[in-house]
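Form 7-S
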Amino acid sequence: MQTRRASQRGFNLLATGASISALVATLGLATDMARMYVVKNELQAYVDAAAMAAGYELDGSLDGIAAARAAAAAGPNGANTPNRWDFATKTVTGVQSSFAQTFTGAYLASPGSGTDYRFVKVDASATVPLYFLTIVPKVGASRTVRASAVAGQALVDTLGEGVAPFSPDAHDPSDPDFGFTRGQKYTLRWPPPGQRSKHYCPGDKDFVPGGGSSDRGYIDVGQGKGDAALHDAIVNNNYYLAYPLTIGSVIQHVTGEKSVTPSMDERFNQDTDTASNTYEQYQRGGGNGRRLITLPVNNGGDPSVVIGFGQFLLPPNSCGNSNVTPCCGEYVGPGLISGKKKAGGGTGMYVVKLFQ
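Output:
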């Protein structure tokens, strides 16, 4: 009888021990797994934002690759967000970035050049200590949690709000850069027909615009034809068309002499960098992007048709001092919406977005 009772007590002890182990394992599964889930979400939020920040730095150069790598490592706000995981108590370290020319292409940590590299992949990891699951056989004291995101500059062929009311004629409609040379100044507003052989921007020497005598370069993006309306479109980017401009849209020209010089000067002076004379200098400066304007480029036909979108930098005194002098803008390239960096390859505009 005593042997049976001792056996029962031994069984109960083993059963209790097994039950406690099972409860602890369950608690560990609930607690440690929940912590890993939280850390995974924190890391994912970080790499999503870091990839977007890095995507804005890509500009077709190795300097752009380096700047994108630095942005990915620092995060979207750099030193302003030093704690980024484990309930904002630990800093994300060991961030890895790689770059590709296409979303599905090969991602390289150190490309040989920056040409057409428009996609960046950001990987981050964190080691999460385990507090309960360690009692489970073969489960270590920690687990590594990883997160990854890919952002890139996506080509778009439709643009709504943000278009300025000018449209330069392409020199070569079949060229990805419209026949323009990056860094050269082109005419945004032409003088009257009789003055065009004397007054033009440097890139338009010997070029004849194709829209006829009524084509001064102004276009209607829904604002109307008055000076005040043009000011509203230039300075405030107000856009009233029922549908956004897209490749193939017919351009509505605004005729006559318009007083846009004060509006162009006002927009120029809203920038935090009014000292840079070229886009190369502007990239290194502290500009806020107000000197960059986005324009539909047309085919020079009658009617004029949108063939793509380009970005131009307003130089100092871009329109001179009279309606006879032209308004000039330095061609930057196919532009980047909401960004100061230029994107590479293809006509149109680019927008940074998450792909994965």
